[in-house]
Design a protein that fits this description.
The protein is of the alpha/beta class and 257 residues long. 44% of the residues lie in helices and 17% in strands.
Length: 257
């Protein structure tokens, strides 16, 4: 059985002490492809380095809403380099993670929107999909996606378990990626959301080192734990773990590789 972790952050400092050892353990655990996603300028650089070092790792380049600078001038400089990074390597498979986050930052909404829109333009120029981060910003996120065509579509990563968001995202042609929160005991509508997503539009991820799934909640997460997310999806969908792994692997390959 092979698994594809479609969103992790192996460049994170939480992996600094054992990254090389962990990468080999990930491979041995059957995670034969994974995306170490960029989220900042420095994170995008590090993601590219990791992807070029390991054959089964891919990456994305982008500035998340929580990592954008304070001025438009600084933003233009960052985005120019993001586009350069994405052009430099065939291992950069998407622009992301990008989007809106009003939970952590609600005082720079207009700059967040601008950064999101400009990075959609970069994705369209490079004919790449986008990886979307959306938190407490459902309506504005959907409004931008309805107003600005995304040529290669993309995925809502660690998708919020919001019925309206999922319904509209699917209508727009996007994939939905499930992460550790669907396994949480207090995740009230996880089963309903999983059932809403067609088999050919779902991905799985860890978003590691964050959001460890049950039964590992509270510990450092890593890509080996994507199997717990797959198992939860399998249970809700009435499939075997192997079937879920195969379907989500094929979906991730179709979108990214």
């Amino acid at each position: 059985m092979e698994l594809f972790d479609s969103h992790a952050h192996l460049d994170d400092e939480k992996f600094d002490e054992d990254r090389e050892i962990l990468v080999e353990e990930i491979r041995k655990a059957g995670i034969t492809k994974l995306i170490s996603a960029g989220y900042s300028l420095e994170g995008s650089r590090r993601g590219k380095e990791l992807a070029e070092k390991y054959d089964f790792i891919y990456t994305t380049a982008g500035i998340s809403p929580n990592d954008i600078p304070q001025t438009q001038e600084e933003l233009w400089i960052m985005l120019e380099e993001i586009e350069t990074i994405a052009k430099q390597s065939g291992k950069v498979v998407a622009i992301g993670e990008i989007g809106l986050d009003y939970y952590w930052n609600d005082e720079n909404k207009e700059l967040q929107k601008l950064a999101f829109e400009k990075q959609i333009e970069i994705a369209n120029r490079l004919e790449l999909p986008i990886v979307i981060h959306a938190r407490e910003a459902v309506m504005d996120t959907l409004a931008i996606l309805k107003q600005r065509e995304v040529l290669k579509k993309g995925v809502f990563h660690c998708c919020p378990l919001n019925r309206e968001l999922v319904k509209e995202a699917l209508k727009l042609g996007f994939y939905i990626s499930f992460a550790g929160p669907i396994t949480f005991k207090n995740s009230k509508n996880a089963n309903e959301i999983i059932e809403m997503v067609p088999n050919d539009r779902m991905l799985i991820e860890t978003d590691s080192p964050y959001l460890s799934p049950e039964p590992l909640r509270g510990r450092r997460n890593d890509p080996r734990n994507v199997r717990f997310v797959a198992q939860k999806v399998a249970e809700v969908k009435g499939m075997t773990l192997e079937e879920t792994a195969k379907i989500t692997y094929q979906n991730a390959e179709r979108l990214f590789c």
